[in-house]
Amino acid sequence: MTAVLNHDELRTRTLAILDRLGVRDPFTDGGELISRSPITGGELGWITAHTPAQVGELVERASAAFEQWRLVPAPVRGQLVRELGNLLREHKTDLGALVSIEAGKIISEGLGEVQEMIDICDLGIGLSRQLYGQTIATERPGHRMMEQWHPLGVVGLISAFNFPVAVWSWNTALAVVCGDPVIWKPSEKTLLTALACQALMAEAARRVGAPEAVSQLALGRAEVGQALVSDPRVALVSATGSVRMGKTVAPIVAGRLGRLLLELGGNNAAIVAPSAELDLTVRGIVFSAAGTAGQRCTSLRRLIVHSSIADELVARLKKAYASLPIGSPLQEGTLVGPLIDGTAYEGFTKALATAQGEGGELIVGGERVLADEASDAFYVQPAIVRMPAQSDIVKAETFAPILYVLTYDTFDEAIALQNGVTQGLSSSVFTQSIREAEEFLSPAGSDCGIANVNIGPSGAEIGGAFGGEKETGGGRESGSDSWKAYLRRSTNTVNYSTELPLAQGVEFV
Ligand code: NAD
């Protein structure tokens, strides 16, 4: 375990990073929002929140920017994303460190998150020359039918604490290329990274002459989010967070028939078959379950192991978990950083108690480490619990490093266990059997938005569409054709003949 930094040193370092990223004087005495680092649990400063009325003003400005931005040719809009990508490359080290300071991710994952932003900018630049529609065969002579994709309008973006910068960039890089201004309400737990992204985006907009209001921040808690999603001028609400949040936001947007893209909680599983290559499997499991201290939406939470290899696999995992370096995420070599806050720690301890009450056997972990009881920094030893077949706690997403182990005898039983939860984000199978691998990927296999073979459920890359089914919300972001969410489709029929034939042979003379 590695020592945790002194809080004053951390604060000084944070302010210097912010300054280099273009964020000056972020703190205001009397601000309503507190900025903390989970590394020390200490307060960094107070930040002023927007009022719901101010959110209306942001929407007003974004709507005016839309009128202008939607008419700029898409390849020219792409230059904004190119500039953002250049700035991100230049500031990768600082922004990556800031992600670690604010979200508690180890430095390599903080940098990885910024790399993901750079990757989506690259994708956005290419996309800016590829917003293509189709031409479609028409039954009428002398006619042409085609579809075009046009800018949609203002995008209201809500994001979670655990991907404090990537989720913004997944949405923003595509939205602005598609001609849509974005108003971002970041998590109230990660305000500094939001201020830094906004400063970089403002600089990019200045350099290419884009309207300032193409990207704006709405800072605050749930009520600020509510004001944003309730506004009928917000054409698309893209919301990332818990299922609980999604269930509040969805009826509001549906009530005004707005467009919604939801990226909600997961409860991700890995099936381990008897033929699995165990060295690779153990590495895949430990990264997915204990990495990011179990605070990824795609973190591995349920391990479904064939009963013939369960004892051996659990013994290997126990050994790997016992030597995991836990500590300051800024320290080289640390693999597990802190939980985000005391509420997350409470969720961790309660879930472990419930699991044991349901007959679970704690194999390893579960203790609080490094800081004393009075501290507001919450470091824990990632836990593995072997569970009986019937248990309820395994069906809930606890946003902390707890891996439940379940066993199976037939592959059908394994798939039924994997699919037997309300969430449907990510899933994986470790097997050398092509039959099992293909079955897992078939319509009768995993019901998740992401299904992997011989890789854990976490760690997606930009080129694929990201998102999940069932209570995860059905949204898709990032690659493939996810860009279509930020555009409206216009179907056009052009008659270049001198006749007026009607479709379906209808006569009207
Ligand atoms: P959260 O739901 O507590 O908060 C997410 C965001 O929603 C925050 O910005 C919050 O202020 C806002 N919010 C909360 N209630 C709201 C309301 N009533 N109206 C409008 N906005 C509201 O989630 P969190 O603790 O920050 O993040 C963890 C959760 O997010 C986990 O469930 C995780 O699985 C999920 N998540 C999902 C994805 C994905 O892509 N599927 C990605 C990251 C995180």
TrEMBL record:
- Aldehyde dehydrogenase domain residues are 34-489
Q: Which UniProt keywords apply?
A: NAD, Oxidoreductase
A Pfam family of the record is Aldedh
Residue spans making up a coiled coil are none
Which InterPro entries does UniProt cross-reference here? Ald_DH/histidinol_DH, Ald_DH_C, Ald_DH_CS_GLU, Ald_DH_N, Aldehyde_DH_dom, ALDH7A1-like
What does the record note on quaternary structure? Homotetramer.
Name recorded for this polypeptide: aldehyde dehydrogenase (NAD(+))
- Source organism of this protein record: Jatrophihabitans lederbergiae
